[in-house]
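TL;DR need structure tokens for one chain.
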Amino acid sequence: MKIPLFLHLLGVVIWVGGMFFAYMVLRPTAAQLLEPPLRLKLWHGVFSRFFPWVFLSVGLILASGLYMIMQMGGFKAVRLYIHLMFALGLVMMLIFIYVFFSTFKKLNYHITREEWSSAGIVLGQIRLLIGINLILGMVTITVAVLGGST
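>> reply
TL;DR here they are.
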């Protein structure tokens, strides 16, 4: 069970760690140093490189999590904290899918046309959703650690 757990944690570290870095470090620095057109182009480049890693992470997390649940006897056999982790993870995945297939496409559209004001509004929506996902990720980690210790 060590390899699935390793893959699961690797996915979590990449995804949640990447969101933490982007939200808490890169965002305030970019806002302080860059004018809106450059800042928007920076975020487009960051998301273009980060989102494929998120897709990989989501796949690792989902596949390894389901595998470990099945090894423990399925959903009927696992404790409540695992159900909660799974539910929170699914919500996070749905938010990411929305960000990628809806808001990120809008961001691309507005940046391509140099519609900086509209792009800024969309970036604000993405920032909010990533902030929500970051909080959900931290809660999920807390549930995993504290739920497993009782």
